[in-house]
Design a protein that fits this description.
By secondary structure, the chain is α+β, with helices and mostly antiparallel strands. It is about 50% helix and about 10% strand. It folds into 2 domains: about 170 residues, no CATH class; about 110 residues, Arc Repressor Mutant, subunit A. The longest helix is centred in the middle third of the chain and has 19 residues.
Amino acid sequence: MTRPRVRLGDLSVGFVQPLAEALGQLGHDPAPLLQRYGLDAARLAEPAARLSIPRYMHLGHAAIALCGEPALGLHMGRLSRLAQAGLAGVAAAQAPTLGEAAHTLLRFGPLYAANYRGHSAYQEDAQGAWLRFYSISPYNDYNRFVVDSLLAGWLAQLAALAGTSLQAERLEIEFQAPAYAAHYQALCTTPVQFGASANRLRLGRATLATRNPQHCPSTYAHLLQLCEAELQQRTRVRSLGERITHLLGPLLNGGREPDLDEVALHLQMPSWTLRRKLAEEGTRFRDLLNDTRRDLAEAYIRDTALAFGEIAYLLGFASAEAFQRAFKRWTGLTPGEFRRSQRRVG
């Protein structure tokens, strides 16, 4: 059985547009930088073109180095438009209210951004709703700007629908306050919380109920149908093994590994049934877990600057030493040797 290769994720090249515009506004020509990353006009105009998350993070880091503005992500967010999120964004722009627009944008997030380790979510309650953005952690100079641009971008996109300025009731950021922390306060009516358990912003009931004057019921219904069809196409999985591989990414974390019973619970089937069905597909749960860990380990080492201890934590190993032993067993190389070999190839 050939296993699918695990990648950290990818996103629409539409996300490059606000980055380029922000650089331009800060007095820098973005074209040479985009060319260096293979993002010429033809590439940016390709239908459904995607960019890997690690490559996007490296692009953002290079852009921040070019302009010297660590808050570049917040500038990008203010310039974000719903159309840059592709079909999901166009559908959200036709929603009847800001709440429905936010729900549409996050529900169909996989159409414009896929993160193997987790996904964004719209969580509504009687008083309002949280818009939660999942990001790869731990945080560094390569990924803070992604959080900044998405959270600020959601507010800018919804404000454009309402035709007025918009601030969150609460704003929570997973990483500790950066040097440019004061820049976030314009996004929120209350003090921003750093070091939080998630990256999320809260909108109140009145904001969610704000009507969208551009709403057309028939067009919105048609766009939702198209989004549903594309989402089914993107998320279609052919085998039980592939379903488990997709589950394992978010479950691996924090010095612990998921077991067969936990995965069976997520799949809503008895453990013995899961074990039997995997045997019918010619594989075992332990094999899938090891394959997933190996593929993710190679992706993290190759595509990010994370320390090996951080990677061990993300993959559910009890210690960095346990991770290094496993990686040597899988590949014949230490993590350091593998990273150096990939840099030589690059």
